[in-house]
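Chain A, query sequence.
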Amino acid sequence: MTGRSWDGVIFTPDDEPYLGRELLKALDNLIVSCLESNSKIARRTHQIAQRTDLQDAACVLIPQGVNLSLAIRELVRQGYLFAAKVLLRPLAERSVTILYLCENPAKMEIWNSGWGYRGRPKLAQMMDSINTTLLGERYGPDIGRKMTNGLNSLTHGDPASGFWNMIVTSEGTTGYGVSKNLGNPDLCDEICAETIQWLALLLGMMHRIFPEAEQAPAQPRVN
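Chain A, predicted structure.
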């Protein structure tokens, strides 16, 4: 990094710092596909005569997840890689939660009662359940804890989280950045790769939970 201050610079799609990265382009393409699908499905969800409990949950979780993905993308554009990395935890939770509820209909009762902290399964537990029931333990035992340790570290700000906002100063020393990070393409790639997997899951759940949205328009919903 140079000694120039980037604090007041607002980057555009034409001059953003990580422009041209392959994973960034892949994320942009996925975002376009996701928004196109959402624009079609969202209109139809208001026409479904009687939504299921799972569909009601999806109407909350999927838009939130897409919104978080867009926020991550904009933070990457502006060079705020640490903040983008932090948002991966809530994005992952929403993506995993809607898949978990889809695969475990009996758990809808917990969702409907408020998804309270004491009653709902932890993110690691939901990941373990999905790994067992859907993937045949492809990723081995205790994958949930392994995947969530780093995400939780970023959320709670423990010592290990310092790795993610470490920068090289203009003097060649290391420090903890408070602003834009324009010199870490590997971290940019990692953030994009993780965002892609969770956003792709949300896109798949849109079509799985609202298959009627791709058919003829439903009757107007009776409130």
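The longest strand covers residues 166-168. The CA atoms of residues 166 and 204 lie 35 Å apart.
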